[in-house]
Amino acid sequence: MSSAAECAAPDYCEPVVGWRTWYAVERHGEFQLASLFYRVSWPWLEPLAGTCHEWRPPWRRKHDRHAPPDPACRCGIYAASVETACSYISPCPPRTRWPVVGEVALWGNVVECTQGWRASIAYPKTLYVAVSGRRLRGAARVARCLERYGVPVDVIDAANRKNLAPTLGAGALEPSSTPSRPERRRLRPAGDGGT
Questions:
Q1: pLDDT over 90, % of the chain
Q2: How far apart are CA 130 and CA 98, in angstroms?
Q3: Which of 34, 61, 97, 147 has the lowest CB atom count within 10 Å?
């Protein structure tokens, strides 16, 4: 006879879809999505498998390993509402980083939090290079490189930040409205990664 844990139904049948912000960072002539807070790059055509990046004293590191998202930790791949994601877009980003906001599909272990979700696996669903001023000229090249993720990519003028979240949330730029799992035939779990 199997245990109750083996027979438990998943909380969600489809991926949870939320919004998040990344930087597009150029490496070897290609742009890749990178976390705002950790040195983690999102692989092309592979879901990102989260890892815990929380700091621990050296004598506790071996004993505290766990799979994200752990309820007792802050680890996992984050997603939130479009308003929250847009609030992380810097008005003056570093010259070598391009702000990107977009929908992200979360699956695996998913923990619902007060302002969004944390998950063990994620992949972008739609991407918007959010720039303003002189940077609008170079944004098309960044968007073309990000098409390598195999998802819709567009450039959005982020000059008026107050209207950015309502514009994205209202579907004015036609982000996909139905949650769906990224295409399985092209995706493999990545070994390293995190938020």
A1: 34
A2: 8
A3: 61
Rounded CA separation 30/42 (Å): 13
One-letter-per-residue 3-state SS of 138-151: HHHHHHHHHHHHCC
pTM of the model: 0.75
When pLDDT is cut at 50, 70 and 90, the band that residue 34 belongs to is very high
Dig out the tokens for 14 from the structure: 């489809």
Calpha distance 99→70 (Å, rounded): 28
**Helix (H) and strand (E) counts in the chain:** 4, 7
pLDDT per residue over 48-75, tens digit each? 887 776 655 555 555 566 677 777 676 7
Q: What is the pLDDT of residues 139-187, one digit of tens each?
A: 999 999 999 999 999 998 887 777 788 888 765 444 333 333 333 323 3
Residue 50 carries which side chain, given as an amino acid letter?
G
Q: What CA dihedral angle connects 90, 91, 92 and 93, to 10 degrees?
A: 30
Q: Which residue has the tokens 């990178």?
A: 34
The dihedral of CA 184, 186, 190, 193: what is its sign?
negative
Q: What is the dihedral of CA 145, 46, 101, 128, to 10 degrees?
A: 40
